Amino acid sequence: MSVNVRVNDLDEALASCAKGDRAALREIYDREAGQLIALAQRIVRRRELAEEVVQEAFIRIWTHAHQYKADRGSARGWIYAIVRNRALNLLRDGRREYTVENMDALREDGQADEVMAAWQKLDRASRLYECLAALDDVKRRGILMAYVEGYSHGEIAGRLRIPLGTTKSWIRRALSALRECLA
Description:
Residues 127-178 form the RNA polymerase sigma factor 70 region 4 type domain. The chain has helices at 10-18, 22-44, 47-64, 75-92, 100-107, 111-121, 127-134, 137-147, 153-160, 164-182. By secondary structure, the protein is mostly helical. Helix 2 (22-44) packs antiparallel against helix 3 (47-64). The termini are far apart.
């Protein structure tokens, strides 16, 4: 039984994956891989590592599709969280080699443009856009830096030039406000 993945059918595709339908996994891959590699690359900063992250993520999606629960969030969010977590784990495990070019990229403030561009790409009629717009600029940037770019709290604190404790509490409060707004 093959699944044709349309705009809102990732739930069905994951359910089919849980039942062993390889075609459903292939449909998810064909549909999402480009964006998933881009997400991973923003975090790990190297294309070959990003591809490795996505490959590992799809193995996890295949083996853990039965754990996805639609009542706990969207299928797309579940898939993207797996990729994001895999990319962050790669960084934490120290498997990423930093070159001089990569270190300079980490220090650049030009990343702020990418973060805000991601926010601007959201559908202006979406509830997420409205809720993010309700946050003050620094808190919105902090949330986007953490969840779009994959920055750690320490990296965010350094880039925004605010204390680490303040960064952590702002992000925690901003997430709480987002949850409340989206509920």
